[in-house]
Amino acid sequence: MKTRAAILRQTPGLWEIEELELDPPGPGEVLVKMIATGLCHSDDHVTRGDLAAARLPLVGGHEGAGVVRQVGSDVQGLEVGDHIVTSFVPSCGRCRWCAMGMQNLCDNGALIRFGTQLDGTCRLHDSEGVEVSTTACLGTFSEWQVFDQMSCIKVDVDLPLEVACLVSCGVQTGYGSVKAGDVQPGDVVLVIGVGGIGMNAVQGARDAGAAHVIAVDPVAAKRGWAADFGATAAYESVAAAMPAVAQLTNGQGADVAILCVGVVRNDLVGQAYQAVRKAGTLVVTGIGPATDDSAIPGVNAVSLAMQQKRIQGALYGMKSPREAVPMLLTMYRAGKLKLDELITRTYSLDEINEGYRDLHEGKNIRGVITFAD
User: Fold this and answer.
1) Per-residue b or e along 18-28, where b marks 16 or more CB atoms closer than 10 Å to that residue's CB
2) Given 1.20.1250.20, 2.40.10.10, 3.40.50.300, 3.40.50.720, which CATH number is that of 174-314?
3) Is residue 45 flagged as an active site residue?
4) Is 62 a catalytic residue?
5) Catalytic residue among 122, 152, 169, 260
6) Tens of pLDDT along 76-115?
7) Is 42 marked active-site?
8) Is CATH 3.40.190.10 correct for 2-168+338-370?
9) Which of the following is catalytic: 41, 62, 83, 212?
């Protein structure tokens, strides 16, 4: 069948809308009519060359939601008409990490780097028959798509999918970063970068009982929006926030800092590290250029050991997606989690590059593409 999709043919580059040929679902796979997909910064890293694409051409997108329209053989637990959100880590449920309740670290996660489906082949081809790869075994920037059942999480049919799609990546990642930092009631928490991920870290810190949630972002609009999500104060930089942090903590520093900026640079990791107290935790959630492997200013063996600080990486909110997605959507139903308010603007597929320009200019918390019926 035919599908229109946003395709990347070179990096750095822009998304191009093309009509592609989509193969039917194979064993263990489903055909999904996409309803919505979020414009996550992770896909933008590839267009800008911060992260290398495994293979080009590439259909991007990994934060998606849609309706199952066809089911391949050997599919269990999914039927035609089911509503699903995607998981960018296809969890097998059998490997060591899944057995330990850490599906976000499933061994299948290693396969999302190759641009193919789990079996090593592609389902999309361009007009000349060239295979087109997909981001994270997904490629949600397409009107129709074939996913492995391991990449699909069933959700209730009455939930708005343009909202539910956010839980498949940004909300889960940001909210779970608070768990990674082991935020406790009464803590002072510094959230650095309050976009589509960081705004959910603000919500998570609020819900964990933090006494003070301090948002840091250079964009004035985001600092203003942060208060609606639970921030008690907001500043344009870590340096600007530190006098307030010092006053609140008797000069000790924040209990937890969560780094969620769109492009993480080592100097910012160093600033965030210096901002936490002895025995405090820095959670690094955002990602940066894969080539940025130089020393981190202010971080050395002496300070790590003598001040007993911890630097904690956090993937996918450090929680199993099949546990996190229902939990977060239940909170949304109960009015305990803001999701609608995260969507600053919706776009058509043809407006995808405009959506990413708005992201760069700080106009959105989250932009969402909605697909025509």
Assistant:
1) bebebeebbeb
2) 3.40.50.720
3) yes
4) yes
5) 169
6) 999 999 999 999 999 999 999 999 999 999 999 999 989 9
7) yes
8) no
9) 62
